Amino acid sequence: MTIVVVENDRTRALAIVDALKDADDCEVIVIGSDSGLARKIAAHDPDVVLIDVHDPSRDKIEELTLASGPLDRPVAMFVPNAASALSRAAVEAGVSAYVVDGMAPERLRPILEVAIARFQVMRQMRAELEQTRRALEERKIIDRAKGLLMKSRGIGEDEAYALLRKTAMDQNRRLADVAQALITAAELLA
Amino acid sequence: MKPVVLRAAYVPLVDAAPLIVAEAMGFAAAEGLQLDLVAAPSWSAARDMLILGQVDAAHLLSPIPVAAALGLGGVRAELAAVSVLSVNGDVIGVSRRIEERLRADGFAFELNDALATARALARAAPGGRLRMGVPFPFSMHRILLDLWARATPLADIAFDIRTVPPPLMRRALADDEIDAFCVGEPWGSVAVESGVGALVLAGRAIWAFAPEKVLAMRRDRAEDPSGNTGALMRAIWAAGRWLSRPDSRDAAAELMARRALTDVPAELIERALSGQLTILQTGQQRHVPSFVEFHAGLATFPWRSQARFIADRLAILHGLDRAGARDAGARVFRTDLYRRHLGPMGIDLPGASEKVEGAITHPTPVASLRGGITLLPDRFFDGRIFDPALPVS
């Protein structure tokens, strides 16, 4: 069985390949989602195509679902039953699987289960990374706002922080939003 | 009372505005709803979220639910287009290389003459080949291009249409992967603003009243009397009416820039809303009346004849039985639900649910319950008429 994984991030791609290779005796090919995607996929004549739901290039694969498309064997999105737990899990994990017409669902099941598990882990990692990044950014904004208050009102750091927090609570807004508003106002007045 | 939360998917585009506005301007709240809006990364993702029940409703390209009924695309499903969200709004643009060739040829860049533009483009195509990007295989863009290319000198060149997601259109043009594109705003203006493209034609020059996006729900979900379908439809209708007022444009553009198109300046979004398009980075402007309609001319009424026409074009493109496709397609646009849920609000509704597409050449009053409906021109560039009552010829 030949599986094409569409993924631009090399680390993520390798992780998926490793997991799939352990799961089944199959050839796994990774291609990027840039130009000529549908043609590139067709050149490998795969049985299964896996792509991250979050990749906007997924719409290019819809071309392959047309019988007149570049792939002689039309593919369909894998939805054995829209309500089934497996397809729900796939969507929630962010895996879109397209399978070539006529492939038996029982052959795909183990592949998809592995892919789902791998995508879930990666999704979690991405979410955590994003959270950390945002927290860092907010920390920077709050620090800048504190600095502005300390300078303009001649107060200490703790007092500046307390003032920001009290304002946020009084206005029922997030601390970072109040800090951002202060910075914006200061920039405008400068 | 606690609002009912409905989840709705949209693809970040100017014509997702009715959903964003319905939530932000309180039209949803007035119907006892809170809209939880989810930005979808692609059209297929928006469609699948809807089919799998992850969202209650979605902003979809009008041909998507029709294609799903015909079994075209990744998945067959029964979807209902309960309302049209927007009419028109696509632009056709070209690379700078093609733009220079057109200019040398004396082309006027008026945006309103489909035949002249096709002639000029056929002459300007490098090596007799034009690579054209469209957002999705099942889209009004694809249908407009097909109508246009079959009936013009573009039929004589290699017209190579490929799928390029809208946010990537600018890069595809810059990287010389495509020579031209047909896309919804703001992505045409983004290509102009970044200096990689020029606009040559408004989509409405091909079909003057093309249903572009629909509000889609799963059929069973749309028909469920306890499903708040009517409340959602009324909120969206009110949002469309608000959007159609000229004095709403600045606020609407600002809102879209903040909530849905966070990388795009409000000024670029405002171009589509006002129809005042900048066609080149150097600043030449063209005004396109009715560039996008959210309300006027009964824009949101889901005419079954529109769905029948879309199904017919999909059948021609993909080699399906046309008569069967037309009937299956017509059932997707739900004039019945539109009448049931919006009629009691006191809005005027037409007597008919189908019209002859392409027959209206100037604003025309039509038979309606209160006699107050004027339909806007819906002609095709080649003067064709699509009569839903006639059999396939």
From TrEMBL, chain A:
Name recorded for this polypeptide? Response regulator NasT
Please give the Gene Ontology molecular function terms for this protein: RNA binding
Source taxon at top rank: Bacteria
Q: Which residues form the ANTAR domain?
A: 122-183
So where does this one cross the membrane?
Answer: none
The Response regulatory domain is annotated at 2-116
Q: Which InterPro entries match?
A: ANTAR, CheY-like_superfamily, Sig_transdc_resp-reg_antiterm, Sig_transdc_resp-reg_receiver, WH-like_DNA-bd_sf
As recorded in UniProt, coiled-coil segments are none
PROSITE patterns with a match to the protein in the record: ANTAR, RESPONSE_REGULATORY
UniProt keywords, alphabetically:
Phosphoprotein
UniProtKB/TrEMBL annotation, chain B:
Q: Where is the signal peptide?
A: none
What keywords appear on the UniProt entry? ATP-binding, Cell inner membrane, Cell membrane, Membrane, Nucleotide-binding, Transport
**GO: which molecular function terms?**
ATP binding
Give any Pfam family that matches: NMT1_2
Q: Where in the cell is it found?
A: Endomembrane system
Which domain of life does this protein belong to?
Bacteria
Read off the Gene3D superfamilies from this record: Periplasmic binding protein-like II
Q: What is its main location?
A: membrane
GO cellular component terms, alphabetically, are: endomembrane system
User: What is this protein's name?
Assistant: NitT/TauT family transport system ATP-binding protein
Q: Which organism is this protein's natural source?
A: Meinhardsimonia xiamenensis
